Amino acid sequence: MLDKKVSQLINEQINKELYSAYLYLDFSIFYEQQGLDGFANWYMVQAQEERDHAILMLKYLQLNGEKVTLSAVEKPDKELNELIDPLKFGFEHEQYVTSLINDIYAAAYDAKDFRSMQFLDWFVKEQLEEEKSADDMIKKMELFGNDSKGLYSLDAEYAARIYTAPSLVL
Ligand code: FEO
Q: Cβ < 6 Å from ligand 1: which residues?
């Protein structure tokens, strides 16, 4: 049996991860409209990963006999004008998600819920990667994005991203 607060926070995080997927779908749509299919692809793959995060949490709660309650997913409301906007919002959003994962981890720690701490370890590590790749994208855009050839190369690089299933299996 899981600690009640930890279980509730993980349930809430399912919604946040689904919102992340929704947000990144919105970014993908923005880039597709700008003719940057590579950037659009990158965020489409990212949206799939976020959905995976939600499903992993859902399955973890089910494995532990907990009831899962889904709630409405918020509408993505970021105003996207410049090509760099989604990248900046994406980085900010990942920092926010890191804080949420840390809060759940802290609750698990306080409750001596070692099982959930072990489960969350994967997400702690994942957030390091998520923040790093979001930050790298901003830096590359600032360095190369103002030049059409540079932007073309970046778009080609992001077009090559392919979806891979999460390394965590439940
Ligand atoms: Fe599910 Fe981007 O963290």
A: 17, 20, 50, 53, 94, 97, 130
